[in-house]
Design brief:
This protein has 215 residues and is mainly alpha-helical. The chain contains 10 helices and 3 strands, in the order ααααβββαααααα. The chain folds into 2 domains: 58 residues; 112 residues, no CATH class.
Length: 215
């Protein structure tokens, strides 16, 4: 009798969660031998529902963040590939090779394969992202388009060299940030200095900022 009463308490709690009224109607709930049948029916119902929930979760589309892939592709298209170290601008201190890798570690006539350059590019991106996220705390919540353009600009020192633009971004003033970003000596004198290639690159950042301002 004590065992039966203990089972009664357990089953009462289970039935509160699993179609209590239906189960009670189907069974004379406390008739000795029927207790085992009720437990089995309740557990079967729970198992079926769990299986259905798992199936629904598997079929639901998962959000995919393609930021890293898009940024890598964007930088490859912008930087191009150079297998041999070169000086992009005559007054630059260091050399460049691969996909825009610039620094004192690049030596004259040093060579690199595309595979090595891609690995180095991914490392360079990883090295820069913490600084971007620190400067723009809300970076991860911006649109993917804007994140890609901010990062590609940071890669060459454009965005990181404009604290006023960063401040406006952090204030959510994206259109003002776009204007501020292009009010820049590098941009305004690019053609005169033979650096017209930076113009469409900086325009892309400003366009992404303006687009963010309409959302």
């Amino acid at each position: 009798m004590t065992l039966l009463l203990g089972l009664k308490e357990v089953i009462t709690r289970m039935v509160d969660f699993w179609e209590r009224d239906e189960v009670v109607q189907k069974k004379n709930f406390w008739d000795g031998d029927d207790v085992v049948d009720v437990i089995g029916e309740t557990l079967d119902t729970r198992a079926r529902q769990s299986a259905m929930e798992a199936e629904v979760q598997e079929t639901q589309p998962q959000a995919v963040d393609t930021f890293m892939d898009r940024l890598t592709e964007r930088l490859i298209s912008l930087e191009k590939f150079s297998p041999t170290a070169y000086k992009a601008v005559k007054d630059e201190k260091f050399l460049t090779y691969g996909y825009g890798h610039y620094g004192k570690d690049v030596k004259p006539n040093q060579k690199i394969t595309k595979e090595e350059a891609l690995d180095l590019l991914e490392k360079d991106i990883g090295d820069r992202l913490p600084a971007i996220q620190s400067a723009i705390p809300n970076f991860g919540n911006l649109s993917e388009e804007l994140r890609v353009e901010i990062a590609q600009s940071w890669f060459r020192g454009g965005m990181s060299g404009s604290p006023a633009t960063i401040k406006l971004i952090n204030q959510g003033k994206f259109k003002a940030a776009a204007t501020e970003f292009l009010d820049n000596k590098e941009y305004l004198t690019a053609k005169q200095r033979g650096r017209s290639g930076v113009i469409p690159r900086m325009d892309a950042v400003a366009n992404a900022l303006n687009n963010e301002g309409t959302k």
